[in-house]
Amino acid sequence: MSVRGQFSSKLGFVLAAAGSAVGLGNIWGFPTQVASNGGAAFVLVYLILTFLLAYPILMAELVIGRYSQSNMVNALQGISQGPVSKLSGKLSGYWALTVVCLILSFYSIVAGWMLAYALASITDLLGLEQTSLWLTAFSTPRNLIFCFIFSLLTVGIVHKGVSDGIEKWSARLMPLLLILLISLIIFVATLDGAALGWEVYVIPDFAKILHSDLLISALGQAFFSLSLGVGTMLIYGSYVSKKENIVTLGAQVTLVDIGIAILAGMLIIPAMYVAQHNGVTIFTEAGELINGDRLIFTVIPELFTAMGDLGNVISFVFFSLMAIAAVTSSISMLEVPVAYTVENSSQPRSRVTWLIGAIIVLISTSIVFNFELLFGAVISFTTQYSQPLLGLVLSLFAGWVWRRDSILSELKLGCPEIEHSLFWKIWPSYVRFVCPVIILVMFYHSVFN
């Protein structure tokens, strides 16, 4: 068995784990949800629910991971006492491996679009109009080529290992992401129309704050944006030193994730109203703000087009930001099956990474060639159905299967006084009783409504 990697510093872990959480789910998904659900009302509910649901489940993953020092399949078996729970843990681990590979397969396609649009900004500046049209038009060749390029970037980082690959590149990409994001926020805020967007973003519509759709959307966004349920945070937790206070680290990752999401809203929502000021349609026929892929690939590009050559420069920065966010998440997703295979075989890490990367590219290729049939189905199966249920499994294992004295002993390693803290007085019972109920309600609503 290969020697396990480990993050070399507390900051390295926080940047890597925050990078996993800060993906397209934040930069794209969060503003989209804000646009669809009452602006600041959604932001307020999201903040509350992130700490009511997402943080407790995140802590379950991190603590299980550090205790077991292994992948999700072995970890859930390791904290189980009887044959039934061990089998359940094994099956749940394999389910998570399958789900994370499927998520990465469609995620790589979408991330490839970001790369294509960033490149199109350069070809526009160079006057290569036909090339730009090809880069921004939906086609099978374009989707395949840029999915492959993005996958190469991901594999190239992960095959280097935890400290030399994931940690090193997270430490480079996360600060760059923040710099680009804040720079764009400041620039967009100076444009005509931005003030109205800020008003929509910061003034809540309290009439919508208890609407069931808003509540479920906020729950789902908090859950998905923190990469919960599929083992990414569990495997990252397994690379944390036993000396670290993992409760504090989990809170720091959650706060960074929330911060990036809120910053993304500060960029996207004002940008939409700047686009409207420039004659771009930002509302649907039903009177709702345009969201999803139409927002990112139609509304925002039309704004950049209206700005001339400067718009091409801003477009390049924007889509580079999106691509960076995608990479910081994709490396954590690929690490899940890589860690499992390395720890359960005699194969070297580099070979395993390239092999699994190739398998995921093949899955992506199947989706590209059967886009109408598979793309939406894979997204629904993984994010709408599987992730909440896997989160439920993790809360059940942390709350019911794993012995409470073992959990306390693990937490004490990095924080000897944890037994007397507010966290320990609330979290064990909360993850045992409250989290499963909230997740089941969320799952029922998302499936049957």
UniProtKB/TrEMBL annotation:
Stretches that traverse the bilayer:
39-64, 94-123, 143-162, 174-198, 218-237, 249-273, 313-340, 352-379, 430-448
Short name of any one Pfam family annotated for the protein: SNF
Any Gene Ontology CC annotation: membrane
Keywords for this protein:
Membrane, Transmembrane, Transmembrane helix, Transport
| Main subcellular location of this protein, as a coarse class | membrane
Q: Where in the cell is it found?
A: Membrane
| CDD domains in UniProt | SLC6sbd_Tyt1-Like (cd10336)
> Topology relative to the membrane, per the entry?
Multi-pass membrane protein
Q: What is this protein called?
A: Sodium:neurotransmitter symporter
